[in-house]
Amino acid sequence: MSRQITSVVGGSTVTGGDAHADLNPSDLSDVVLEYGGVDASAAKAALEAAAAAFPLWSRTTPWERSTVLDKAGSEVLARADELGDLLAREEGKTLPEAKGEVVRAGQILKYFAGAALQPHGHLLDSVRPGVEVSVTREPIGVVSVITPWNFPIAIPAWKIAPALAYGNSVVFKPAELVPGSAWELVDILNRAGLPAGALNLVLGRGSVVGPVLTTDPLVNGVTFTGSVGTGRGILDADAPLGRKVQLELGGKNPLVIVDDADLATAVEVLVQGGFGSTGQRCTASSFAVVTDAIHDRLVAAVQERLSRWTVGDARAAGIEMGPVVDPSQLAQDLRYLDVARSEGGEVHGGEVLELGTAGHYLSPALVLGTKSSDTINREEVFGPVVSVIRVADYDEALATANASTMNLSAGVVTTDLATATHFRRSSKAGMVMVNLPTAGVDFHVPFGGRGDSSHGPREQGFAAIDFFTTSKTAYTAPGSPRN
Ligand code: ADP
User: Fold this and answer.
1) Is the Cβ atom of 206 under 6 angstroms away from ligand 1?
2) Domain locations along the chain
């Protein structure tokens, strides 16, 4: 029998629920673990537990909160090999990518252990004589954390760690495909010293538990990363309720490569940004905008690099790309390739591969000869697919890059400082990369996009406090006048 895990509500396990198997996308005969998907009443119980824990947790000292996060961060880092193996096994990114993600989660926990101790307020004189004004930050209350499958531990960490650091209590609902990494993170944090109910884990279908976690009156804030459709639905449902909502809905991220680019840099930036983590990153370089004089050389060099690209079991040595996460994502990737063909694109690669084990393997796909208006350049594929648009010059490249409406990340490859500076200043994206892949961000600085990509305050680093706290301005009258 496979390992069993459960939801955790108020420090207790919740048994029952409809049976779910967590399958290894590299080998579908491997059941990673099993769990019961809970119903709406368990989600409600989790919110009640979080609400009950809030008065206690929000009044702990910054040092107590810092100590819990620091201890949890140390355990995550110490167990990076084991947790990385679990993550690669349930999600399908390669072992080095998976271990790197676990290390990142540990770093995030450590960062917010430090952030909990930082000063956050102001004390000033009023414009009225003798009156003092203080501006302080307070936690918002019960926060629902809803996460996708593509970063099973890092995204939960970058939402849960600041929520807890600033004194909120949390109900965490991970994606159905990756419950194992989520369970480990919650277990580590709870054992690090959280009071019961400060962090609750709800394993269940988004369509069943999601509406409770986003619309129940006990919820004070919702932080969500996932698809545009689900995110917009949450926003619409929450708008009349007036509570804080933070959404990260993905990106359609351009990589501009201009004539003066260093060819080797351009190839690595495109290949790593486009096909790393099987292209299943909201910051993936999903379309390349390439100026005329370098286009053919670049395409030939990328194709040569992809001919040596190794696809296989995520946990096998020397593999550069693991499988697609599940059958519906694979079907979506193939559907977008078909649409690209029907709109005149020339698809190279993008073939379903039969390897030694039954997994969802797809070779990397390069789609040439596409136009900015093509569907493949407008919608997020979320797979190992990069389309290429050939343009005359930098000005056309910039306009083409900025035609994206999901402006999360954008990159430029150039050896010219003026071009780099102009692109950095003119890009519509929330994050800009110069001679670096569009994917791959730091944890101590803001993360987020513009346009249809994000909603609400930025995530991560010093920006996270904006969503996870609310400001209070207090005026204190002078006491009795003294002689
Ligand atoms: P994807 O699976 O493509 O990342 P989804 O938006 O479907 O994107 O899923 C992201 C997260 O949102 C998952 O944890 C999923 O279970 C959850 N979810 C799905 N439907 C809802 C809903 N109606 N309300 C809240 N969360 C939901």
Assistant:
1) yes
2) 3-249+453-475, 253-434
Whether residue 217 contacts residue 147, with contact meaning beta carbons closer than 8 Å, is answered with: no
Rounded CA separation 345/337 (Å): 9
| pLDDT, mean of each 10-residue run, the chain (483 residues) | 93 92 97 96 98 98 98 98 98 98 98 95 96 97 98 98 98 98 98 98 97 96 96 90 92 98 98 98 97 98 97 97 98 98 98 95 98 97 98 98 97 98 98 97 97 96 97 90 60
Ligand 1 lined by 381 (C-beta under 6 Å): no
Report whether residue 147 contacts ligand 1, using a CB cutoff of 6 Å.
yes
**Ligand 1 atom index nearest CA of 205:** 16
Which tokens go with 398? 């910039």
Residue closest by Cα to atom 3 of ligand 1: 227
CA distance 378 to 336: 11
Query: What CATH number is given for 253-434 in this structure?
Result: 3.40.309.10
Q: In whole angstroms, what is the distance from residue 72 CA to residue 77 CA?
A: 9
Could you check whether 3-249+453-475 and 253-434 share the same CATH topology? no
Catalytic residue among 116, 153, 282, 298: 282
Q: In angstroms, how far is the first alpha carbon of the chain from the final one?
A: 81
What would be the CATH architecture of the domain defined by 3-249+453-475?
Answer: 3-Layer(aba) Sandwich (3.40)
Q: Which of 146, 150, 208, 214 is the pocket-test mutation for ligand 1 (most atoms within 8 Å of CB)?
A: 146
Tell me, yes or no, if 282 is annotated catalytic. yes
Does any ligand 1 atom lie closer than 6 A to the CB of residue 58?
no
Task: Please state the pTM of the whole predicted model.
Answer: 0.97
